Amino acid sequence: SESQERMAVVVDPKDVDKMLAFAAEENLEAVPAAVVTESPRLVMNWRGKTIVDLSRAFLDTNGAHQEASVTVEVPVRTGNLFEKKEIGDVKETWLKMLSGLNVCSQKGLVEMFDGSIGAASVFMPYGGKYQLTETQSMIAKLPVEKGSCDTVTMMSYGYDPYLSSWSPYHGAVYAVLDSVAKIAAGGGDYKKIRFTFQEYFKRMTEDPKRWGTPFSALLGAYNAQIGFGLPSIGGKDSMSGTFNDEEHGEINVPPTLVSFAVDISDKQHVVSPEFKKAGSKIVLFTIEKDQYDLPVYSQVMDGYDKLYKDMEAGKIISAYAVEGHGAAEAVSKMAFGNKLGVRIEHNVDPRDFFAPGWGNIVCEVPDGKVGELSISYTVIGEVTDKETFEYGNTVITMEEALNAWTNTLEKVFPTCSGIQQTEVRNELFKTDSIHICKNKVAKPTVFIPVMPGTNCEYDSTKAFERAGADVIVKVFCNRGASDIRDSIEEYRKAISRSQIIMFPGGFSAGDEPDGSAKFFATVFRNAVMQEEMEKLLGERDGLILGVCNGFQALLKLGLLPGEKIEPQKADSPTLTMNNIGRHISKMAYLKVVSNKSPWLREAELGGVYVNPLSHGEGRFVASDEWINTLYANGQVATQYVDPAGNPTMDEEWNPNGSYMAIEGITSMDGRIYGKMGHSERRGDGVAVNIYGEQDMKIFESGVKYFK
């Protein structure tokens, strides 16, 4: 099924009860819906009556036979996007290009989607020290239950609405080529690619010319597949892109064939797109085209094959596939991530620099390696340590370029709320009186409760198992009263066997209404559960950790900033909606500002780490009195900071607007720790385009506490 809420599963009759039991264990509704029979008919019964009884042979025909006449129109030369255009003012052209809808930043939209769940994202959507270089391919490690896997999947897309509007045939050819180029630029082997296509065209009528549009696009895609010798293994069609408007008449979508290229590789071959260091040369690999402006596939494949080998040898350290706005777009976006400058060679023709270049690839080559490249290339510039783009006498500051790139969609998909900043305390709390465990355990057991909406239990389990703990994971079932009673008993037993409880992240009960983590708090306020929690903390000297939704649960339970389950007071610290009013998914720099907690025993006091954020309600709010108390007691554990390590209210680095940039706090003795950043979402080959140390060693610290 295409629906995420429903799935049809076919099982052997003897396994039906077993399958239903598995579903119940995961708190999922499941019912036997149909039986496969030898009779070649589809029969459906409802309330004791047969309402459908159709022959399978009829279903196999897909209904009535249909035919359509097709007239394919040859594209005219007028408006050919491959023709070079004269460039007037270079600065004006460059900034206008960056602000265009098909080039400008979509960061405010992208951050609404969780990019780090599963601790398997090799690329975060935006990379570099400043998280401003957008990636062109999705690259993720294969999820495995135990251990780690070096295998990665890669997916990219290709499509240009202007090219497809001029020629659906060329649009499809270059959609396929563009998707392949992005895989090649990310370090993938083009020979392993398979395609899947998405088509979207105006509504079809009896007009043969209308049918000619999708037909031309499919012919173009077929040309590219034959040229590369690579197949399409799937696709989806949507043929209803026509809308009637009283003012404008019929409105049609552009002819659309989007190519998705899917590849498999390993994390060692991945190359991220942000410029890495000043002094590198910027080179351009250019594809050859025939007299019909179609790619010469033999030259393209030879080039991409050599590109792959040069990347493998470390001769190319970043790359970006050129699209409809030329190498100018590519070098700009490559420079943004680390705010490195670009100096373009004086002999580069601006008509070439801004010309469409689907299939071309811009590469960063360490100085001294250019002569070792096996691809044919042109040196077009150099990476500098200045925050400028230099082209002859034209100089564009990084600020000017970023303003042009980010402002276009800022009002539609904002990246900051505009709330005025305040000063932030910048101090470290150092103490020698760190709580020492009185009940030593060779291998502690961690209990991770899973509520409806929790989604971080797998990542959290791996983090603790990697640190050397045993882990118990139990789903809380609430489909009926008996399920709830059974789950409470299961949870009681699990807590009694554990030394650590971790409340994982997610969106328990959908975070609605009236704030998040209510379901967590309601369950653990049960008298039976509360008694076991008190035994864990009081008798077994245990630890509790809450991340994201789990941090919210600790606050609602009263375990933070206190140390016992009790109702929240009117002035209790809490977590509320992010200043920007939406979900945020990005990486954040975090500074350890207290060494009081056993959870931070292995972290460096004053050290800066980078962790993923993914939440809608993560803004820490407290009264001045409470904040002063937390600082005085050393309970402020971690703060949001800029890359230089300064706590800040700047939403670029403190995305939710937390008071005093507080990211995490602890209980008075430090044994209970709650934080928003997902410290569990890390691993070898994860978020490789993000700069900084990701491992705070929280889980290792928790395990060592008991030894």
Question: In short, what is this structure?
Answer:
The chain is 26% helix and 22% strand.
Report on the structure:
The protein has 707 residues and is α+β, with helices and mostly antiparallel strands. 26% of the residues lie in helices and 22% in strands. The longest helix is centred in the first third of the chain and has 21 residues, at 208-228. The chain is globular, with a radius of gyration of 29 Å. The model has no long low-confidence stretch (mean pLDDT 94).
Set down the secondary structure blueprint.
Blueprint: H1 16-25, E1 41-46, E2 49-55, H2 56-60, H3 90-99, H4 107-110, E3 126-127, E4 133-134, E5 137-141, E6 151-158, H5 161-166, H6 168-185, E7 194-200, H7 208-228, E8 232-238, E9 242-245, E10 249-252, E11 256-266, E12 281-285, H8 297-312, E13 318-321, H9 326-336, E14 341-344, H10 350-353, E15 361-365, E16 378-384, E17 388-391, E18 394-397, H11 398-407, E19 445-450, H12 457-467, E20 470-475, H13 481-496, E21 500-503, H14 518-524, H15 527-538, E22 543-547, H16 549-557, E23 574-576, E24 584-592, E25 608-615, E26 619-621, H17 624-632, E27 636-640, E28 662-666, E29 672-675, H18 698-704
Parallel strand pairs: 7-8, 14-17, 19-20, 19-21, 21-22, 22-29
Antiparallel strand pairs: 1-2, 3-4, 5-6, 6-11, 7-11, 9-10, 12-15, 12-16, 13-15, 14-16, 17-18, 23-26, 24-25, 24-27, 27-28, 28-29
